[in-house]
């Protein structure tokens, strides 16, 4: 035990010494570059008036864009109540992919809608898949186990379906559009039945 502790102490001391040497050499190079009138760093934003932003800052800016439509009531609802219809796991994985694509791309539009994920079972397969890949807490979405019928006025709900007899030709900012959270095309007729209830 004492022998291993001594080895660890020597290893830490050697690491600290190497770091000190590296810092001293970096300081010398920086001083030499300044004497020659050259920028002391190749950092992209060092010689620019524009600030370089990292991923956390970009994520914060994207989330700020979502607050305005959330307050104005411009919503896009994804109905996640079709877990039992996803017979295969890859269908559920495709659904998670599509939701993540929405989160990545929605802020690129001029007036993005705030996204609600409804009918999400607390310990369901969809929630488990998100926990395994990317937590919903990291996305600027409103996630609830409640139904959209209990959250929004029924007269504003429009359930979108590729099998509908009506073609959507314009976008109503006062309406609340619902997309069925299902990736298996063999179950699309269920969405029509749900739309009739709305």
Describe the 3D structure.
The protein has two domains: 1-52, no CATH class; 55-197, Alpha/beta knot (3-Layer(aba) Sandwich). The protein has a five-stranded parallel beta sheet. The protein has 198 residues and is of the alpha/beta class. The chain has helices spanning 2-35, 55-72, 89-105, 125-133, 148-151, 188-197; strands at residues 75-79, 114-118, 142-143, 157-160, 176-180. 16% of the residues are buried. It is elongated, with a radius of gyration of 26 Å. Strand 1 (75-79), helix 3 (89-105) and strand 2 (114-118) form a beta-alpha-beta unit. The N and C termini lie far apart (70 Å). The longest helix is centred in the first third of the chain and has 34 residues, at 2-35. Helices cover 46% and strands 11% of the residues. The chain contains six helices and five strands; from the N terminus they run H-H-E-H-E-H-E-H-E-E-H.
Report the principal-axis shape.
Answer: elongated
CATH topology of the largest domain: Alpha/beta knot
Mean pLDDT reading: 77
- Biggest sheet, spatial arrangement of strands: 3-2-1-5-4
Which architecture of the largest domain does the CATH hierarchy give at level 2?
A: 3-Layer(aba) Sandwich
Structural class, by secondary structure, is: alpha/beta
Low-confidence stretches: none
Largest sheet: 5 strands, parallel
Our measurement of the CA-to-CA distance between the termini, rounded to an integer number of angstroms, reads 70 Å
Oligomer description: single chain
Q: How many helices in DSSP terms?
A: 6
What share of the residues does DSSP label as strand, in percent?
5-15%
GO cellular component, one term: mitochondrion
Domain SAM-dependent MTase TRM10-type: 61-198
Protein name: SAM-dependent MTase TRM10-type domain-containing protein
GO biological process, one term: mitochondrial tRNA 5'-end processing
């Amino acid at each position: 035990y004492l022998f291993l502790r001594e080895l660890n102490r020597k290893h830490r001391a050697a690491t600290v010494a190497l770091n000190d040497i590296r810092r001293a050499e970096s300081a010398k190079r920086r001083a030499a570059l300044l004497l020659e009138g050259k920028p002391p760093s190749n950092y992209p934003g060092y010689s620019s008036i524009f600030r370089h932003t990292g991923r956390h800052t970009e994520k914060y800016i994207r989330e700020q864009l979502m607050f305005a439509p959330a307050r104005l009531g411009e919503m896009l609802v994804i109905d996640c109540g079709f877990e039992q219809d996803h017979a295969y796991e890859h269908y559920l994985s495709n659904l998670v992919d599509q939701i993540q694509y929405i989160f990545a791309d929605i802020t690129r539009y001029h007036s993005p809608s705030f996204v609600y994920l409804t009918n999400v079972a607390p310990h369901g397969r969809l929630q488990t898949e998100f926990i395994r890949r990317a937590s919903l807490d990291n996305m600027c979405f409103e996630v609830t186990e409640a139904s959209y019928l209990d959250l929004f006025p029924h007269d504003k709900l429009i359930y979108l379906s590729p099998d509908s007899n009506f073609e959507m030709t314009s976008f109503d900012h006062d309406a609340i559009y619902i997309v069925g959270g299902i990736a298996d095309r063999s179950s699309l007729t269920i969405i029509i039945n749900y739309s009739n209830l709305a």
